[in-house]
Amino acid sequence: MPAILELFTTNRVLLFFGILSLYAAFKTIRLILHVHSCRQRWKDVPALPRHPVLGHILNIGKRLDPSLKRLPDYGFKEVWDELGRPDAYLLDMEPAAVTFLIVTHPSVAESLVQPSPQYKYSIPKSDTYKFLRPLLGKESLITVEGEDWRNLRRRFNKGFSPAHLHSLDPLIISKTRIFVERLQGHAENGETFALKEPAQDLTTDIITELTVEKDFHAQGTMEGQGHKGPLGMLTASRLLSGLCFKMGRGFNLLHYFDPVRPTRSWVYEQIFNRELSTVVKQQMAAESTDNKQEHQKSITRLAISGMTPSKALISNTVSQIKSFLFAGQDTTATLIQWLCFELSKASWAESHAAILEKLVAEHDAVFGKTDDPFNALNVLGRENEQGRRDAEAILGSKLPYTTAFIKETLRLHPPASTARFIPEVSAENPTPVTVKLHRREGDKEAKEVVINGLRVYVAQYLVHRNKSVWGDDAEVFRPERFLDEQYMANLPSGAFRPFERGPRNCIGQELAMLEAKVVMCAVTRGFRWEKIGYSGKKGEVGYIPKGDGTDGPECEVWSRSSVTAVPMDGMMMKVERR
């Protein structure tokens, strides 16, 4: 009897392992067939040589390793240069990850982000955005599709209209005064500081007031206290971007299987959601009891006006506020840092000294040349009716060179890019999506290829530095290009796309430009900037950082990935009064 039981047990074990082996073999064969099919389908798309099993994981993955302190786009540029700068190329990370089409030319980008008969609101966003749900919310305007997206965009558009935003100029200017006072304090102390902190505090104070009429006093709160405490709302919102799963960073087991990161992300997401749910309820209560108020409403109140409060509406609105707080404080703060970095070059580069002279001359002409280098804020901050109209006119059209300076900064230092997913051909999507690609820069003929099933990354960093689009000086900082009507007319459609294009462009682009103009008016004549470390003094134009610790200390500061592209050192600066 024991022998029979032992035989029975042994047979069960063998059967289990036999089934397990068959299942593993089945999955392996399916994976091999899938990978082979993918590589056959897209064989006409430019790409580096592939490993027969691992695709590009070895020769591209090492350039995107999470341990490198640099933006993945620098690795994409290395590959782009090796391939002869095609209009787009394939990044084949099968079987470990998804396959991406890296877009480098505006003509290809435009064909994908503009509406079409098949895709009414442009091609859908990439499914990889799901990793940003803790930061943006489940129903974010940035990620939802179809009519859900269209309805949200309509509701929130009025809050981001130029007319509404200009009515809030006094608020933006009052917050910028605090920013200037903090810079004056740094100037008096002669200390080195990370510009990221005051810039992010400024944009946080502005976006929270505009979206929910609540002042979190980011500029007046010490680190570790209040909303900046360990479990504070501002701490949660800022840390979440660093805790999101990072796509486009190669293959690293420690990165993929990190139990601490998702746990911390969940904790901070609960803090963020709880605080914002309370704020939304307050906004709904205010809207229902004070619907005839005379002062300007917040973006949230404009969006929920006339709607019946409900749990679903609260949840949906929280998602939108999370998205606006992230985009409104993060990307605009990054823009401010790069603006000041470009101003810092005036102390050692003749080209930038000449640029600064033109900026100062424009501000003197518009605001008057006085002993007070900060008088622009006084001119823009007049709160009588005529003063408000004057401020709107100045910020709208009377600062052309300042606007060109901001655009050139956005061109060379774009804070974000878009990722899309092209669905497979099916009954719902019967028409294949095709693009025409030049395989190398200078090729006269373009080959049409089908790209269904691919994720797409429109690499703004590469589009904006494409010499076949912008000319031989594509990597040179030259604001005048935006004032040259003939030059701009000759650019292909969509060449300049820092806020993306098409129906799903950035809803907050007017606000970002408005904040940037006010900051430029406040600091251009008042401060002299010095970048500490990675100043660019001895760097070469178009230098691609390695991010592995071997980059020279005086090459130009570069970006790293924190959902968006942010300066790798927090933009360490010294500042003094002019």
From TrEMBL:
Keywords annotated in UniProt: Heme, Iron, Membrane, Metal-binding, Transmembrane, Transmembrane helix
Species: Exophiala sideris
GO MF, one example: oxidoreductase activity, acting on paired donors, with incorporation or reduction of molecular oxygen
InterPro entries in alphabetical order: Cyt_P450 (IPR001128), Cyt_P450_E_grp-I (IPR002401), Cyt_P450_sf (IPR036396), Cytochrome_P450_monoxygenase (IPR050121)
Keyword Membrane found: yes
Annotated positions binding heme: C506
Name of this chain's protein: Cytochrome P450
Any one Pfam family match given in the protein's UniProt record, by short name: p450
Cofactors, names only: heme
TM stretches of this protein: 12-33
Domain of life: Eukaryota
